Amino acid sequence: MFTTDDRATQFLKFNGIQNEYHDTVTYAELHPDWKLTNIGRRDKIDQDAVLDYGCRMEAGSAAPAVIVIPGKSGYAVLDGVQRLCAGEELGATTFSAYVVSPRTSTQKQHIIRICANAAINGQHTPEKSHILETAVRILHFEDHCSAAEIGRVIGRTAQQVDDEIHFQRTVKLIQGTGYTGKLASRSQKWFAALVGKASKPDDWQAAPDPLCEMLHLVEKCKFKNGAATPLVEDFFDIRRSAKKDRPTQFYSKLKNMKNTPEVRERLSSRKPGRRHLDDVLPRLRAASTVIERAVEAAEVVHDGEFANALAECVRVIYVNCKQLVPRDLQYPDGKHSSIFSKG
Asked: Domain boundary at 268, 291, 315, which?
């Protein structure tokens, strides 16, 4: 049903794992929970893979032998759960296996569980993102492997692994405040990168309550990366010293954040969902900063078309911004004093 495979031999040799090839291991010798400990996949049993392996076996195509390790309650399956399920459904009672030494370290057992299928079989392999995520979660945070070591066994660069390490570490810090919202999810990975860079690790233990409130506020406002960046960076811009109370500083920063025009506008808006207006202020501020730097550097426009293009942009912005703002907000001090004419 299964057969030897050079890829399996090379994989085990590459990772320094002692093993012997046995061709008559019985299903009765397997650990009772052999189907339930498959950390290499999101779903422990992939029915599509089981069906495909079964069809191939019935057609006479032998799959690579599985990898097992002996234990007190029987052989634990380190690689090959789907193939064994397929064989079981075909009525097999024995199978071929690479039996690794019972003295194999937990770290190397994890390497087999996480990496072997993609390295050896090449069919019905877990997603690369899942392999990276699982490798970091287990090999780094449990087994203390470095980014370079993990990259070597999963075929990723050390930088890619390091980025995932920072993401998972930041998510742990975020969740440690009691926050369980979507900003801690993989779909909002940009936010973990932002707060991971702006904060210090001990901020999260020193002041979990104001940080948790900040997270809920950012989520409620539905900020995207561009709009959130200056607000979050300012929030974490505090003095970190024994003489300065960190929770007090963060509560003060939280109050400031709530009073910013961006936050006040989003909290007061009755229009649900994403709006074009949400991008206006951060982009205008960014443009203003660039213009101020050009003026400070004494840069001068020498091309007439460039000058005309600048003037046209200013005109469009001026005219359309006036249309965005209701009249009562444009003239708070009387009809002859528009906020667009000040300064």
From this structure: 268
